Amino acid sequence: MRVALVMEQVAVSRGGAERSTEQFLHHLLELGVEVELYTASAPPEGPGLRVHTIQPAATTRSGRSAAFARRVDQLLAAGDADVVHAISPCLRAEVYEPRGGTVQETIERNLALRRSAGSRSLKRLLSRFNLRQRLMLDLERRLLAREPRPVVVALSEYVVAQLRRHYGFPDSHIRRVFNGVDPDPGSEEQRRRDRSAVRRRYGVTEDELLVLMVAHNFKLKGVGRWIEAAGRLAGEGVVRFRSLVVGKGSASRWRKRVASAGAGDRVVFAGPVEDVWPFYHAADVLVHPTYYDPCSRVVLEAMAAGRAVVTTRFDGASDAIEEGVSGYVLDSPEEVGRLAECVSLLADAERRHRMGARALAAGAGATMRRHAERLIEVYGQVARGRAVV
Fold first, then answer.
1. Residues 73-110: pLDDT tens digits?
2. How far apart are CA 118 and CA 126, in angstroms?
3. Are 243 and 269 within 8 A, CB to CB?
4. Is residue 99 a part of any domain in this protein?
5. Inter-axis angle of helices 297-304 and 16-30, to 10 degrees?
6. Which end of the chain is less congested by CB atoms within 10 angstroms, N or C?
7. What angle do CA 196, 223, 114 make, to 5 degrees?
8. Global pTM?
9. CA distances in angstroms from 146 to 92, 143, 149, listed in the order given
10. What's the rounded Cα separation, in Å, for the pair 219 and 332?
11. Furthest CA-CA distance within the chain
């Protein structure tokens, strides 16, 4: 089978959706699918992969995205792929997989970052002048309203709800294919070495609870809310803990917020890393009080490492979490007190180990290999008569 895969940016340095796409692409190729990748970024390499690099000469980001969409349509019209699978909105898509969630929900959840009604109203007004955002929203609306309808692959029930709420998209054309991650690559011995090495590097003793956050977009993923919760925990003085924040961000700015929250030296910014697995191995708990994640790979990776997690209902990965059994799910990232309470509960070693084991079992089926296999089944449905069955 030959699949045309459309994604404007595949660079893994940009974040989780791009890294997931690269892993997904790797498994498709391993499973014998021939892939023609249409992208504007430097692509990965692999046997069976043919790349169409589209780099428009437009000077603005919106102009480049518009030119990319037009050129992709032209190339696909002349191509002979069995199925067109778009991750970036594309009007010729037969399979649409919004790995970053729907454009409309992305806009709304970014508005939710503003904590006052006046600030949200101003942000909503200014967003009308975001030409790229308007372009992507228009492309998605046209694609989902098109006849014949595309098949939409939803990474989580949260994405299903987005499709229903924003577009009235019919369930008959939705395929629920839960997100996946590659399994923990570390042996038991490697995990022990990682735990010792990372804790030693950051001065964390074995009897301190190590709370991990992994994020590139600090604001959207709730780093500010975790800092507030860490300040509360530090003030209570009941839990001996330290926290590492891994990812890109202006550490100096956030350190000031740590100080003002009263968390002292409890929260350390480790910066971006090539390999995050040693940090999962070193940590006791992952917190991810996100404002928006269609289905967080960070949460799924932490579960694959046997770590209990705390996230929010605005994270589709919460589908895999049984409340109080394999982790905790907050109704909102603004529930700072509840976030602190959950971490305090997980300071109990027996509870933490029990929940970590359940998290490992719950996440065992959420592999990227399985995700790719399910997508191949969807391709087969589409290719057979171009009809939903």
1. 999 999 899 999 999 999 999 999 999 999 999 999 99
2. 12
3. no
4. yes
5. 60
6. C
7. 175
8. 0.92
9. 10, 5, 5
10. 14
11. 66
